[in-house]
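Appendix B, example 12.
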Amino acid sequence: MSKKEKQFWPIEGVTRNEVIKSQKDTRFNYLRTRKSRRAMIAGLTLMTILVALSSALPSKVSSYVGTLGGLVLLSGYLLIRTSVRHIADSPDELLDERQIALRDRSYLHSYRIISSIFALIIVALFIRIDLSESAFEIADWWGTGACFSLIMLMAGLPSMVVAWLEKGEDEI
C-alpha cells in the first residue's frame, strides 16, 4: 500500500512530485525565455481586461467573449505557472533561498497590485459620474466576467510577477 503524497497547498493541488518534476522539466523551455514570459503577461493582462469588460457588451457577444476569454485566461494561468516552474505556489522546503526570496517579493508586489485595483474599483463606485441616465450603471459593467477576471488575476498574479522579475532561462 503506497503512502498518500502530502499536498502542500490543497487548493492548488501542488504536490512534492509536481514541484520536483517542474524544476527538472525541459519540455517547455520555449516558455521560459524572458521574451515569451513578457508576451504571455501582456496577453493575459489584455485578456483579463477584455473578460472583465465583457459584461458591458450586448448579451450574446458578452457570453461568447466571456466564455472564450475565460478559457484563454485559464490556459494562460496554467502556462504562466509552468513557465516559472511553480515557484509562486511551492512551499519553502522545496525551494532554495533565492527562489524563496523571489516568491516572497512576488507576493508583496501582487498584494500591492490587487489592493490598487480594488481601490480603483471602490473610487469608481463612489464617483459614478452620470453622463446620461444610464451612462454608468454598475449592472452594465460589473458581471460574471469582472468577477472571474478578478479571481483569475488574484490566482495568477504571483506567477506573473515572478515571470516579470526573473531572468529568462536563456539568459542564465
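The helical segments are 16-24, 34-53, 59-83, 97-127, 138-141, 144-165. The first strand starts at residue 7 and ends at 9.
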